[in-house]
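Lecture 7 notes: from sequence to structure.

We start with a single chain of 150 residues. Read the sequence below before looking at the structure.
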Amino acid sequence: MELILKETISSLGQEGEIVKVRPGYGRNYLLPQGKAVLANANNMAALEKNRAIIAARLAKEQKAAEDIAKKISGLAIVIEQLAGDDERLFGSVTSADICSKLATFDVKIDKKQIVLPEPIKTLGVAKVQIKVGYNVTAEINISVVPMKVQ
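Now the structure, written as tokens:
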């Protein structure tokens, strides 16, 4: 099934691209959600008319993503958590914790953009990838230190 993407989907492509997907995925998810339209003659003509507008918007989004990536690349964040004697945490550091800590640096990203295969459960330093935009990633250092109990 050929579809024209109406928005950028990281696993498929950018807005305005023509992609081939399985019929069930297109029919049951992309079309009802309004994320794509069928690649027929009418929609192809509309795409060609709007191609310059889409390209300008994508370039603007790409520039914004690169600016954010430049701002946070190599950033070192310190997160305090309660920990036991064996350097294991009483809980874990999740992408939501990292997202809220980044907000203190005036970086607004969604927690879904943080690539964290599993929560951090030990003290120390971890490198974390952040998907800032389509094909733009940045790496930050997360230092997990024990919380000082008063």
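The chain has two domains: 2-69, 71-146. Keep this in mind for problem set 3.
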